Amino acid sequence: MEKEVKSKEMQDTANKLCKNIIANVCSYLFTIIELHKIYEKNYNLTVKKRGESYIICYNLLNSKKDKKDIKKDSKNYYEITIRTLKNNRVLVNINIDGYIDNLSLNALSSDLVNMDKVINAIKKLIEKTGKI
Amino acid sequence: MLIEIKDGKMANANSLCKLLAKELCNYFYFILAKESEFGYEKEFTITIDFNKLGWDIIYNPNNNNEIGKDLRKISNYICEIYIRPMDDYNSILVTTAIGNFEDRIQLDVNDKEAKNINKVMNSIQSLIDRYKQ
């Protein structure tokens, strides 16, 4: 019983971190897209929740029909997936225009430290693309 | 760039649209993080579309990526927010729809930002309250 309660607490901590990351990453992406004008005409930023996992996608679109044709490895496509793992960990996979980074965060660390790690990783990958 | 900036009026309208889009998205993530306004959803999609007309922000609790008019027929939970500058660039039109409830507010770009943001947040909150009744 005690084990179950502890496991539930650990899961809740990891889920809380997931939600915090979503809000901060979306806000950061929105700012950086607008600041550096990383689009030509249109863009689309999507947050999907699937079970306990979250996916953030950013597409640069020239028209709505492009949405169907976009491929994950193509240019102008960002995908960030965030999911909880066992033992208080949160896994963040970042794919920016084909540049990839994976982070495993400790949900018991401060939110600020974790957020900083994710934002820095995204920033480094966007810098690699030469867009900022 | 939403509006080709030719004068200060356009620049103000552009900047207010951008600010509203960002604030509304943050508000959405906040209420969804609480998971209390719309009820707990196992799955959802929030889409922010930027196009030459303005910003469309859509919260869709269905596992359906198709964004279109027919979505409202699928579920009442869908929340849509459209932010558009008016032709005279003196005001911004914000249309919010939650289920069958709809609200339109016109914002003066010369008003204080905090006042305009507050108007939009209040509009959304009142729709959520009506929706919950």
Count of the separate structural domains of chain B? 1
Total domain count of chain A:
1
**Radius of gyration of chain B from the CA trace?**
15 Å
- Strand adjacency order, main sheet of chain A: 1-2-3-4-5
What fraction of the residues of chain A are assigned to beta strands by DSSP?
Answer: 25-35%
* Strand-pairing-aware structural class of chain B: alpha+beta
Distance between the termini of chain B: 40 Å
Poorly predicted regions of chain B are none
- Provide a count of the helices of chain A: 3
* Proportion in helices of chain B: 25-40%
Alpha-carbon distance between the two ends of chain A: 52 Å
Strand proportion of chain B, as a percent range, falls in: 25-35%
Average pLDDT of chain B? 77
Biggest β-sheet description of chain B? 5 strands, antiparallel
Q: What would a concise description of this structure say?
A:
The complex is a heterodimer of chains A (132) and B (133). Chain A is α+β, with helices and mostly antiparallel strands.
Give a verbal description of the structure:
The complex is a heterodimer of chains A (132) and B (133). Chain A has 3 helices and 5 strands, in the order αββαβββα. Chain A is elongated and about 55 Å long. Chain A has helices spanning 2-35, 66-69, 111-129; strands spanning 42-50, 53-61, 77-84, 89-96, 99-106. The N and C termini of chain A lie far apart (52 Å). With 132 residues, chain A is α+β, with helices and mostly antiparallel strands. Chain A has a 5-stranded antiparallel beta sheet, covered by helices on one side. Chain A has one domain. Helix content of chain B is 38%, strand content 29%. In chain B, a hairpin with a 2-residue loop joins strand 1 (43-51) and strand 2. Chain B has 133 residues and is of the alpha+beta class. The termini of chain B are far apart. In chain B, helix 1 (8-34) packs parallel to helix 3 (113-132). Chain B has one domain (8-132). The chains are: A alpha+beta (132), B alpha+beta (133).
